[in-house]
Amino acid sequence: QAKENGRNQVCFYQAKEGGDNFSSFDLDSEFKQALVEDQLYLVFQPIIDIQSGLVIGGESLIRWEHPKFGNMPPVSFLPELEKGNQIVALDEYVVWTSIQNLKAWHDKWPKHFRSLNVNVSGKGFNSESIMQILESTYHTFPEVLNYLTIELTERSIVANVAETQITMQKIREMGVKLALDDFGTGYSSLSYLHQFKFDVLKIDKSFISNHKADSGENIILEAIVNLANALGIKTTAEGIETAEQLLSMKALGCNSGQGYFLSRPVEKSVFVGILLDGLAVLNQQTDA
Ligand code: C2E
Ligand code: MG
Ligand code: MG
Ligand code: MG
């Protein structure tokens, strides 16, 4: 019931965001406190190879369990953090923690070792501190970076095209893969796909959920997947919520997918179980 309370409190906080009472929630100091008091943690959403049904890894997603406001969804604090530089501290936490997890899983279950995607803001991506974390990993456990994918949005690239391109080059040389997140929602500049040499294109969930066979969306979706295939870029379908959606993404030739139909984001111990045992929903499907 603490969580339910928390949800209400978040609405309260959001409602005030635009108003002059917003300063009563001092995100700046609350976030500093959150870092010190371990209020932040990661959950993980499994990603499957759509064609084979095997779990190939997952995506780290930030969660903030506030002592008073409860579980605050990322949308309630990320945009504010992105206005300043605190987003970089969040990115540091996420990248560092994800790498620690990758290392631990690599040591414990080398045969079940899978890749991990992390979301990084534009500011964080071009920051010295993230580069330092990656470089020190590169010098100590370089193989781990081959299993790390950084997800960027078009919005964060557009903010600083030249610098981002240089950072991408450096990061790529360390073995880290790069994914373009939420494709279809922003500028969707097709030339970016080639110019920035993304390894993966993540097709936004709005495309997946609005998708119907024989619809205009379907034609666009098909064109996106074909274009990515032709450019040698892998595709991931985000927000798969039904068996039908999974099947049509498979038929379209999408490489991988994630979504509530497969699994919601789960806490670490559950995710590790999924890495080892696969997803029950898919096992049932193949059994049937
Ligand atoms: P995203 O990177 O596109 O992540 C996918 C979002 O869709 C997640 O929301 C996930 O819980 C949600 N989702 C997954 N499957 C489904 C589905 O089947 N249906 C629907 N309706 N939603 C689904 P979440 O965790 O609330 O994160 C929202 C956004 O916040 C993320 O979008 C990402 O842009 C940002 N974010 C999350 N974690 C981090 C982080 O650690 N660092 C940074 N910089 N941004 C983050
Ligand atoms: Mg993402
Ligand atoms: Mg996305
Ligand atoms: Mg998104």
From TrEMBL:
Lineage: Bacteria, Pseudomonadati, Pseudomonadota, Gammaproteobacteria, Alteromonadales
Descriptive protein name: Diguanylate cyclase/phosphodiesterase with GAF sensor
Native organism: Glaciecola nitratireducens (strain JCM 12485 / KCTC 12276 / FR1064)
Domain EAL: 24-279
Gene Ontology MF terms: catalytic activity
